[in-house]
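Entry for coenzyme A complex. Fields follow.
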Amino acid sequence: MKRIVLPSVSYRSAFYKMAGEYRDADDGRYYRDVAREGFDFEEYVTRLHRHSKGIGLERGLVAYTTYWLVDGGDTIFGVSRLRHSLNANSRKEGGHIGYDVPPSLRNAGNATELLRQTLAKAKAMGIMRALVTCDAANAASAKVIKKNGGKLENQVISDFTGRVVNRYWINC
Ligand SMILES: CC(C)(COP(=O)(O)OP(=O)(O)OC[C@H]1O[C@@H](n2cnc3c(N)ncnc32)[C@H](O)[C@@H]1OP(=O)(O)O)[C@@H](O)C(=O)NCCC(=O)NCCS
């Protein structure tokens, strides 16, 4: 059974496998970190834990917890990030929760499960209604959000991409 876990150094090879997959897909996600000179996986995991406590955050970011979807084997099936609160930026277009699934593991329900379990973590944290957003052209993500009960509030234009962003609320 797949479950979300906090980042841990025990998933080192799974993490590198995931980063390599993004590299092969020409997507810098995670690989950007790994490829940085002096990258240290243990330090990376420690940094994620610090960020979940609100320590060492870049300016403009709020505390967030990262989760990895795993099944006990050597694979990370997806990554989610749960913001503990919203600021002006995330209230407009970032939302409480972001997620991604490695290219070879898509269309198998992984993001749907990842979001479902992350919403339960949000509820445990006292977030009763989660804002989840996606680019209006991201049909797969819109489907994942709707399958988790997302109700479209409105559409806004992203300050970063200039593209239309769908804003959904989900009762946790
Ligand atoms: C969006 C993303 C997380 C979806 O992950 P996933 O594991 O494939 O999602 P799921 O398998 O749980 O569900 C995807 C659904 O979208 C559908 N889908 C996939 N591509 C689609 C497309 N181009 N058009 C319409 N529907 C599509 C799938 O059929 C599936 O629906 P179903 O369960 O009814 O068959 C993944 O594509 C990803 O990581 N993309 C890059 C990062 C990203 O966009 N993150 C979201 C930011 S808001």
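NOTE: The chain has one domain: 3-127.
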